[in-house]
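Need the bound structure for AG3, inputs here:
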Amino acid sequence: MAVDLKTDMWVTETYKEITGLRFRVEKTLFTGKSPFQQVDVVKTAGHGNLLLNDGLMMLSERDEFIYHEMIAHVPLCVHPNPERVLIIGGGDGGTAREVLKHPSVKRAVMVEIDEMVVNACREHFPDVSCALDDPRLELRIEDGIRFVKETTERFDVALIDSTDPIGPATPLFDRAFYGRVAEVLSDDGIMITQAESPFYDPDIQAPMFNNQRPFFKRLHLYLFSTLTYPGGLWSFGFASKGRHPLTDFDPDRANVAAIPTRYYNPGIHRAAFMLPNFVADGLSDVLDPIGDSEGPAR
Ligand code: AG3
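Answer from helper R.:
Posting the output first, comments after.
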């Protein structure tokens, strides 16, 4: 089909001034400026609705399931009995939706700093925000840094569903924050952190893991593909007080088959921790080996 130049609209995320990712837009659904960031929702031609914070793509309806399944099910299927889950950020509700698929979870607390994100997603991403009113979830509009400093509650799993370390999410990559998260976690606790692009962001990943090292016994990285973030390959950090992401993973005990997913399964779980050489070599000083061999996962 020919492109009508008068109505041809695209939204572009420019990343580090070296690459751009763009989607055709049909119309703008929401635009607002909160005390924390610029929030935009557009309807795209082929990827459903798309949320941007400060011009950075956060999620599209078409592929959000990959990110949200991978941040939630990997730790929840490694922990032997995850009952209490903390989510920092994640205002769209996608992470909460996946967490609450686990029958073992009795209580989830989600701490999102920006109410505008929650409201925009309630309206424009109904299939993502659908679990925000689940009675097991407490949604707090509050600074996550302050919450972990002040809470006396303890959690089995903490999921740091943050944006890039610019703007409001910057302190979520600091040593002091990871220290507090470790304190609010139980003795077999697991923390997952949004860990950026293995191609473009080793300069963010290495300090991130260094900042976690004093508080966790095991640090690993795992990968997933995305249509919505620059480069198409993205990662999470897996930090635990002892649990191993593969040898402590038992798909039967976790009853993976009973959790409805479109991306995550036991094979994906294991494969995600296998790192290409350039990733493993770049992070060999900061990650733990995944297997018996020397050096990080491969
Ligand atoms: N969190 C954002 C991940 C990083 C995106 N970075 C980027 N586009 N430059 C997504 C929140 C989903 N709950």
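Comments: The first strand starts at residue 10 and ends at 15. The chain has a mean pLDDT of 95.
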